[in-house]
Amino acid sequence: MTDISLIDTTVRDGNQSNWGATGLDTGMMLEIAETMDRVGYESIDFITSTHMAVAVRFKQEDPWERIRLFKERAPKTPLSFLTTGMRFISWEVASDEFMEFAFRTLVNNGIERFAIMDPMIDVDAMVRMAKVTRKAGAGQVVAALPFTLSPMHDDAYFADAAKRLVEGGHYDKLYLKDPGGLVTAERARTLFPAISAAVGHIPLEFHSHCTIGLGPFSYLESVDHGVTCLHTASSSAANGTSQPAQASIISNLRDLGHTVDVDDEAVAKMDAYFSALAAAEGLQHGAPGEFDRKYFHHQMPGGMMGTLKRQLAETKRSHLLPQVLEEVEKVRADLGYPIMVTPFSQVVGTQALLNVVSGERYATIPDEVTRYVLGRFGRPSMPLDGNVEDRIRNSKRAKELEGEPHMASLDELRKTIGTDLSDEEFILRAVMPSEQVDKMVDHGPARRGYNAGSKPVMDLIRELTSRKGLGDVKIEKPGFKLELKGGA
Q: What is the enclosing helix (H) or strand (E) of 116?
């Protein structure tokens, strides 16, 4: 049978899909890094520029420090960075010069593998990005081919795109990225043989989601048709809108006669750690999704689905999710059926959310939607709705954005931002609000570890110390003693 390797997605896509990208901080990742390094993954899907922004904005943590420290504790396993076109954190289109500089800085901090995806499946743009990444010193460059359903995206379409991607000789591997978890076992039987025949000796990976319960079945089917590497997550960060769970996939693959060379003890320890962490932090433990045919229409991917749920919950509007998903389908049609993957899932999802919450379609139009209509992200596969396109193109904001300049050169940015900063801080300040970076710097180094068992005690201490006028507190039980002295 086949030797199958795994790529872990827990700290990146699992965290994003099930926990809104904000569930884990640096200390939590570092605590389990050595165990993850023992598992025997082909790579760890570790970070994107968006996740770097989340570290700064929500955790006040330095994402460069996170990469360095994790790599120190997991030296054997390559860390992977996923990039989605000519942008880095900001929605602003960046130059080749800036992207090469950012990628070289990632390499210097410990990133070895780069996965390159273009949301329009623009082969020329992906080949160009591969050249930039190689020049920056990447150890492995992987083409990520996003899957979608539309009248034009048949097996021949994907096979042709895959063939053209690998012909240039800049890609080491290719993976089919199924953000909506829409590849059925039946489609896998025809799609993967077509791609495998097109790419020849280039190894093929598969990355899907369990959003409607198809992921585990399509995974097992794919390895009989050319796939040799699967993307999985630790049990608590798996399932839901995330990837299939590693333990069950390993077991099922072996039952079918395939070889999966991993450290089973390390897998079990990792699963136990993240399960305890999820319970302590109140994070949702992933459960297999129920089959829902509506996903074949709106195609909302796991990461953005998690973000939508979080945004609605934060504003106490969770009940509006079905309406938002119905509106996603309409907005996607209005915008020419973009592939529902970053950044287009965010573009479509945000516009749909605003349409539902405001009660009027396109009353508020984010700049990213306007830039999309203006062609800043490339040409859509199918024509836009004429009325919607005219409304956006003729708006005052569209006229303003048409004339906006592209990102300044590195020399110009250095003059504006400062010449005495490290490369890492300079990049963050070039693409993020300065006040957010200031808070990160003021916050200081991230914690170096995590203990799920101490969470209730720390919560109790924080609650007690926040109360004014509280006297001495003493709590004792077998094996535990806590004393807090009140202020004078």
A: strand 111-117
Over pLDDT 70: what percentage of the chain?
95
pLDDT value at residue 286: 84
Sequential DSSP letters for 282-299: TPPPP-PPPP-TTHHHH-
d(CA 381, CA 341): 14
As given in the structure block, the two tokens for residue 404 are 């906006």
Secondary structure letter of residue 178 according to DSSP = -
Q: What is the pLDDT of residue 461?
A: 63
End-to-end CA distance of the chain: 73
Burial annotation 332-358 (CB, 10 A radius, 16+ → b, else e):
bebbbbbbbbbbbbbbbbbbbbbbbbe
Asked whether the whole model's pTM tops 0.70, one would answer: yes
The CA distance from 377 to 39, in Å, is 39
DSSP, collapsed to helix, strand or coil, labels residue 231 as: strand
Q: Which residues neighbour 313 within 8 Å (Cβ) at sequence distance 6 or greater?
A: none
Q: Helices 155-167 and 185-199 sit at what angle, rounded to 10 degrees?
A: 30
Place of tokens 């973009």: 338
Distance CA 184, CA 153 (A): 15
